[in-house]
Automatic annotation (TrEMBL):
Pfam families: PDZ_2, Peptidase_S41. GO terms for biological process: proteolysis; signal transduction. SUPFAM superfamilies: ClpP/crotonase (SSF52096), PDZ domain-like (SSF50156). The lineage of its organism: Bacteria, Pseudomonadati, Bacteroidota, Chitinophagia, Chitinophagales. This is Carboxyl-terminal protease. One of its GO terms (cellular component) is outer membrane-bounded periplasmic space.
Amino acid sequence: MSKNRKLNVFLPFLFALVLALGMFIGYRMPTVRNSSSKIFFVPNKRDALQEVVDLLKYKYVDSVHLGDLQEDAINALLKHLDPHSIYIPAEQLARINEDLNSNFEGIGIEYSMFNDTLNVVNVLQGGPSEEAGLQMGDKIIRVNDSLIAGVNISDNKIKYYLRGPQGSSAKLSLLRDHQEKTIQVKRGIIPLYSINAHYMVGPGIGYIKIDRFSESTVDEFMAALRELTRAGMEKLIIDVRQNPGGLLDAAFRISDQLLDGSKVVVYTEGVHSPKKEYKTNQPGLFEKGALVIMTDESSASASEVLAGAVQDWDRGTIIGRRTFGKGLVQDQYNLSDGGALRLTIARYYLPSGRSIQKSYKDGREAYGEDLENRYIHGELLNKDSIQIYDTVEYKTEKGRTVYGGGGIIPDVFVPYDTAHYSTLQLQIYQQNLYSEFAYEYYLAHKADFAGYKDIKDFIQEFTITPAILQSFYSYVQKASINPTRHSVKDDEDISLRLKALLARKRWDLNGYYEVMNQDDPMVETAVKKIQEMAE
C-alpha cells in the first residue's frame, strides 16, 4: 500500500519529465504541422547548406527532387577545390571501382556492337562463357527474355543484362552459323588484368606494359618478371604510356621490386594528413640490370610515382615525353545516397622532395586543356619547348638536376609521331572499322590462323597483302569514308594495325602489342638506349 502511495507521489514528476523531454526533442527537430508552422534550426549546430536543403524540402512552392539538387550542390562545392576531388554518383560507382578492384561479376566475354547486334569477339579462357560453350563469332540476340539486337541498346544496358551476382544464371539466345541456339551461363568472378603485355622485345631485353595500377597489378607484375627472367631477361623496359594511375600502394610495391636497400619511394603529406613515408623494405626481383621507363603526356599519378622514384634514385632512364603532372592523393568516402566522394587528402612528394602536381589555379577548364596546350606550344614535338613551371632545382642521388611542378621530364625525349594519325586513319578509327574488319576477316580465315604455332611465327610469316588492304578500303568505302587519297604511309600504318588486331584474336593483348611495337619509335629508342646501358 505504501509502495502505491509513493508511486502516486512520483507519477506527476515522471509525466512532467517525459513531457519536457518530448518538447525539447521536438524543438530540436524540424517539423511541419500546417501552413503557419516553422522549421526550427539550432544555432551553431547546422550549417547553411543543410538549412537551405531543409527549407527547399519543407517550404518550396513546388515539389523538388532533392537528390539532383544535392548532386549539383556537391559538384558546385568541389569546383572550388582541385580537379581530382570528385563526386561519384551511385549508378557510376561500381563501374569506376572495377578498374581498381581488378574484377567484376559477369559471364566473361568481350563484345562489340556491329550492325546493331552484339558480337562475341573474345571468350575469356577458363571463364563461365567458355565453360558453357560460347564461341567467338556468336551473335547474342536475347538475354533471358530481353531483346538486345536491333533495338539500338546502350552499352550500359548491355552490361546490366550480362552482369550480375556470382552464381546467378543468364539464358542467352544467339545465332551461330545462321542457326539459333540457347545457352545457359552461370555468372562468375571475371578478372580485369592490368598488365597488358610482357615478352622479350630483344635479346636479353624484357618488356612489360602496365595499363593501370590496381589490386592485382603487383602479383601480375611479379609473375611477368619471373617468366621473363626464365626466358633470359637481363634488362627491362616498363611501358606506362597512357597509364592514368590507380593505387599508390601498387606503384610503391612495384618500385620495391626495382630499388635495392631501404629507400624512400614517395612520401605523402597534407594539412590533415601527417607525413607518411613509403620505404622499400624487401629484396626485389629486379634490383640490378639496366632499366628503362617509357612515359608520355597521359602517364599520371601512380605511373609518375614509379617513374619519379626510378629517376630520383638514378636507377634507370626515363624515355618519352613529360608526364601528366598529378601529385595529389585521394581517399574515397562512401555516402548515404550510394555514391562516393573521392577527396584529395594529401600531396605526394618524390624522393628528391619535389612535387610534380601541375597548377590548377586557373580552374578546372584550363586544367583540362593542358595537354592540348602542350601540343599547340610544340612541346610534344620538340624537347626545347617543354615548359618548366617550378624553377627550384632538385637533385637525384647522383646529383643530376630534376624539376617538379608539372610532371616528370624524361631523360631522353621522343617526339609525338603525328604521321601515324592522318585524317583518313582518324575517320576509320572513330567508326571502329579496324576492329569490325579484323573480326570478320579472322572468322572467315580462322583455320588459317590456327596454323601459326606462336606469335613470333605469325609476325614473320603473315603479311597484309595488297588484296587484303584493298578489301579493307572497299569495306571502309561502304561506311561513307573515301579512301582514294590514302598515302603510302597510310597503307603502312593501316596494315600494321590490322595485323596487330588479327594477332589479338589469337594471342590477346600480348599479341597485339608485340606486333604494334615492331614500328613504335619510342620502343625502338628504348631498345637502342638499353642496349647501350651498362649493367
